[in-house]
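Board notes (copied after class):
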Amino acid sequence: MKLYLLPGVCSLGDHIILRWAKADFEPVVMSREGIKSPEYLAINPTGSVPTLVEDDGWVLTENVAILDYLGGKYPEARLHGDNPRERAEVFRWLGQLNSDVHKAFSPIFSPGVFFPEGTDMERAREMAVQRIHQQLGQLDARLEGRTRPVGERRTLVDGYLFVILRWARKVAGGIDRHQNLSAFFQRMNDDPDVQAALELEGLQ
């Protein structure tokens, strides 16, 4: 099994989950140019990551789909949660991360796509950062009194949330105002499998 990834983007979450599941996989680190190459587009025509390729050639794309598949493939890792309510909570978190929080970063990462010529880019960036922290504030409140997003063990949510928090630390002025998220980030950053994933992706 191969996981095609770009360093530090949402595929880092899948990378972490594969390590937690003790999966036998090959991480394939791509470049921005590489994911637009004819060879890669033949695997994933969207030219994006992550892409998971099974040993029989089956290809799966889209971050949340890959996370769900890995949770089902490695049930012993208990990454879906331990009961139907926990599984529902896992997908509530993943839904918000994917649909709302991740997209809040898009105006910062790809301003040319979102803003017409002549836009006050400094003001636009300020507004984007405000939206990011509004979303993070909701997540921080949901973490009150907890060490993990779902239950008291790691789930599919944790890797993706860690990626989001890395982005916020880099481009949105940090996460210190969100005490619960800050504590979660530190716990994740201390995890040996997380450190191994960061090292392989050249992010340390």
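Comment from the instructor: The chain has a mean pLDDT of 95. The domain at 84-191 is CATH 1.20.1050.10 (Glutathione S-transferase Yfyf (Class Pi); Chain A, domain 2).
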